[in-house]
Amino acid sequence: MQVKEDMKTIDARGMFCPTPLIYVSRELKKIPVGERVKVLSDDKAFKKDIQIWCHDTGNKLISLEEKNGVYEAVIERGTGWHGDTFLEKVRFYAIGVKLHLYDYFYRLFKSAGPKYIITFMSIPEGFRAIEFLKEKGIEDFTTLPVPNEIYEFCGVVIGFKDKNRAIEVFNLLKENKFGVENIHLVDRKRKYPVVEI
């Protein structure tokens, strides 16, 4: 396969799931639809993980080869996942409508909304994390759609009023191998800067 010379390469060698996927997710969000990145990983789970992740996020796995224990994947940024079956599509849009109504309410009544949000590497990963938190009795968060300023396609975030609580939950999810990407500040200008942890 011909690889574009200026294609960004993500070197995730020495990292284990879900870290390579988190780096891929972050980088793809920075490039336009149709552009590609190359990923290098020596994690044995990467082959299966990247295929599932591409499906779950609506990105396209262009190639996946293994050479001397290192996987090399080329991924093209897509337009997001919207469900495969009719029922998945209905559920996807129904959840989206509900989350966008919450978001609209919080935009009108800013003081009621979260001040910090946690982003995930995919929609399924976000919902998996939400279920995990609820099983642990953690329910002091708000579930919202990812702001367009962070990612213009569908996604899910969880929000907290308190920075320390957001960091605590982020670290809990990270320790339990969930694909959390970043904590963002919900600022007045809606720039959503990343919070350094």
Descriptive report:
By secondary structure, the chain is of the alpha+beta class. The chain is 36% helix and 23% strand. It has five helices and eight strands. The chain has helices spanning 19-28, 46-57, 86-108, 123-135, 163-175, and strands at 8-11, 36-41, 60-67, 70-76, 116-120, 142-145, 156-160, 180-185. The strands form two sheets. A four-stranded mixed beta sheet has the order 1-2-4-3, with helices on one face. It has a four-stranded antiparallel beta sheet with strand order 6-7-5-8, with helices on both faces. The longest helix has 23 residues, at 86-108. It is globular and about 55 Å long. It starts with 7 loop residues before the first strand and ends in a 12-residue tail after the last strand. The mean pLDDT is 85.
